[in-house]
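Anyone up for a design puzzle?
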């Protein structure tokens, strides 16, 4: 999505509008790139988890993948990751305030709503996920 020359400029622009620092934005951009990779058949949650460089540093080999699969198969309701992705993507504000890549902006907005913008937005996401699952 970003060329090396424009990435710092783009990250600075995103940092002005989203509640993340530069290193968090770099990681979120990697997550977003992984999510858009249609050749990668991993689930939404697995793509997010594996796009973090820390997953390989602290959990070598396939340990992170194994843990995410266990959580998705044994703990979370079926379809939770897809429902979370859908709930994170419904913010209409992005459509009118977008200054760049609409898909990336929706993703960043959704991630911010999941915890960086206070309890009301977080509860809205949880409610939306619950309503999609039911």
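Challenge accepted. My sequence:
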């Amino acid at each position: 999505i970003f060329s090396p020359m424009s990435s710092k400029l783009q990250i600075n622009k995103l940092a002005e509008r989203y509640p993340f620092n530069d290193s968090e934005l770099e990681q979120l951009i990697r997550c977003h790139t992984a999510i858009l990779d249609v050749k990668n058949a991993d689930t939404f949650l697995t793509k997010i988890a594996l796009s973090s460089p820390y997953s390989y540093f602290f959990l070598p080999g396939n340990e992170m993948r194994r843990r995410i699969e266990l959580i998705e198969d044994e703990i979370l309701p079926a379809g939770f990751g897809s429902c979370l992705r859908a709930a994170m993507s419904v913010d209409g504000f992005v459509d009118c305030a977008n200054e760049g890549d609409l898909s990336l902006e929706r993703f960043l907005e959704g991630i911010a709503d999941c915890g960086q913008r206070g309890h009301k937005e977080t509860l809205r996401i949880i409610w939306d996920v619950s309503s999609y699952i039911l």
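A detail worth pointing out: The first helix runs from residue 4 to 17.
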